[in-house]
């Protein structure tokens, strides 16, 4: 048995309160490949909680059978700060109330330049040695990060658990959506087996999002170093953000389906012993992130969608409407929601009362859209 459960206590933000992160560890520490999973960084996104709970049960069984070869770390509830934002039953969970108040999945520390300063005179022709060198330098830089506030403590702990992983899989969800993923362009081919097993037919391929999200942070050091040392520096870490459908797509059936797919993936990557699953990549499609149309509400009111999630749409097509319930002329109160991309309508708001200008639907397109600005591809 290798299974270990660790509790990490965060700095107390107010007298009498204390939050913890629980990390479930499987396999020998330092065994490879190492895969890290977390869920709920946006604390209003809960499908990953049940998926990881189900995955942990399966891994405990696999561990008892001696099947775990690599290392797996799972933080099923990774943002207890956001989860604590409970206002009479409503949990916003996406933005911090303290420490600058930003989106919990933006502006994570970028360590590339600092790590480069440590390793630059030590890089050799031995690629494996270089990986070790960089991982040690990352650890050193992580130790130096501040942990005065609760949020700093949480970020530092999550990075310390994940930064030396070969793969980082961050579980999120959308309001209402099909299964989809955000994948760095460099990793499209690498993660196709995972997307195929998860039946994720839409994958948004990222360039520079400008978001400095958690999953980008994990690879940012390697991306920075690869720009300088090319083939001497392999990808020491690959990561992606997996969007587990919509907020309310939570059931034991879906969790079982997703956790089983993740177990197959761990077998495929030889983290778990077993027969490798068959991969059918034919249904996985990549769409450039700057070709993703964010459809904005043209007016405040009630949104109604005519198209179903997963349907193909064409530029110029009406996918729904917003009804201006304050219009003087109720006969003329419907404003159309018009697609600007040819592609797949894959995500939309869950709330039907919308503010003017809110992004309420997403269409994955193939052709780059001139109004989408590289470096600012996420607007919230
Ligand atoms: Zn999210």
TrEMBL record:
Pfam families: AstE_AspA_cat (PF24827). Keywords: Hydrolase, Metal-binding, Zinc. GO terms for molecular function: hydrolase activity, acting on ester bonds; metal ion binding. Its cofactor is Zn(2+). Residues 33-266 form the Succinylglutamate desuccinylase/Aspartoacylase catalytic domain. The keyword Iron does not apply. SUPFAM superfamilies: Zn-dependent exopeptidases. PANTHER family: BLL3975 PROTEIN. This is Predicted deacylase. It comes from Marinomonas fungiae.
């Amino acid at each position: 048995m290798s299974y270990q459960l660790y509790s990490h206590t965060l700095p107390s933000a107010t007298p009498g309160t204390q939050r913890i992160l629980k990390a479930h560890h499987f396999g020998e520490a330092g065994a490879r490949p190492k895969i890290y999973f977390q869920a709920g960084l946006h604390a209003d996104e809960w499908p990953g909680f049940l998926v990881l709970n189900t995955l942990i049960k399966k891994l405990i069984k696999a561990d008892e059978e001696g099947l775990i070869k690599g290392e797996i770390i799972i933080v099923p509830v990774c943002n207890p700060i956001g989860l604590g934002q409970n206002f009479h039953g409503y949990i916003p969970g996406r933005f911090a109330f303290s420490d600058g108040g930003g989106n919990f999945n933006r502006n994570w520390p970028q360590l590339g330049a600092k790590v480069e300063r440590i390793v630059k005179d030590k890089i050799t022709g031995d690629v494996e040695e270089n990986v070790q060198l960089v991982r040690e330098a990352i650890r050193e830089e992580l130790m130096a990060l501040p942990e005065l506030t609760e949020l700093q403590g949480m970020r530092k702990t999550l990075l310390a658990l994940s930064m030396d992983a070969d793969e980082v899989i961050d579980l999120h969800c959308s309001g209402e959506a099909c299964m989809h993923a955000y994948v760095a362009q460099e990793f499209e081919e690498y993660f196709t087996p995972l997307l195929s097993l998860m039946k994720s037919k839409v994958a948004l391929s990222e360039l520079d999002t400008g978001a400095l999200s958690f999953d980008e942070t994990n690879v940012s050091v390697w991306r920075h170093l690869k720009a300088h040392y090319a083939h001497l520096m392999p990808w020491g870490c690959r990561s992606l953000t997996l969007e587990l459908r919509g907020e309310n797509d939570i059931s034991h059936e879906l969790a079982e389906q997703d956790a089983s797919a993740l177990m197959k993936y761990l077998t495929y990557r030889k983290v778990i012993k077993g027969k490798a699953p068959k991969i059918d990549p034919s249904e996985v499609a990549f769409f450039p992130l700057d070709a993703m149309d964010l459809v904005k509400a043209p007016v405040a009111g009630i949104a109604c969608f005519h198209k179903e999630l997963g349907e193909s749409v064409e530029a110029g097509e009406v996918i729904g409407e917003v009804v201006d319930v304050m219009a003087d002329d109720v006969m003329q109160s419907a404003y159309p929601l018009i697609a600007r991309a040819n592609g797949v309508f894959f995500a939309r708001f869950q709330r039907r009362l919308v503010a003017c200008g809110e992004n309420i639907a997403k269409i994955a397109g193939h052709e780059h859209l001139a109004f989408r600005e590289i470096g600012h591809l996420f607007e919230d």
